[in-house]
Structure formats: structure tokens, C-alpha cells
Amino acid sequence: MNTDPGSQFTSDAWICELLRLGVAISMDGRGRALDNAFIERPWRSVKYEEVYLREYGDLPAARRHLRSYFDFYNERGRGLG
Hints:
Number of helices: 4
Distance between the termini: 38 Å
Largest sheet: 2 strands, parallel
Oligomer: single chain
Low-confidence stretches: none
Structural class: mainly alpha
């Protein structure tokens, strides 16, 4: 389990449960927030430009719409959209 050092991930209850399950624990150090920016920004776009605007009727519809969105997003990122 790799997390940031936020309080929800450093509580005794959480740490004890991970240790009980035999999960190895590592935490990012201070100032590492920018490491996540490269992945968080695209997912924010997916949520606000696609997911929050639709009600998918079922899993195949969600997959179809998301596939179309990612095609659009990737083309836009290369200046093609």
C-alpha cells in the first residue's frame, strides 16, 4: 500500500489493519504532491467533461462512452482535436 502521509493513512487503526493483513506499507515524502499531478489532471477531466454529465444505462454503455471520450481526449492532447 503506497499512500501520501495524510492523517487518514497514518492512524493506528489503519496501520494495524494493514500489518494484520501482511500488507507492506510505504508513504511518499513531503513535497511529492507534484508526482501525482500528471495522473490526477486527466482523471479530473474525465470526471468533469464526461462522467458527471451522463447517466450510463449499463456497463457496456459506460465503456462505449468512455472509449469515445478517451479517443477525443488523446487526439485533443496532440493538437488534433
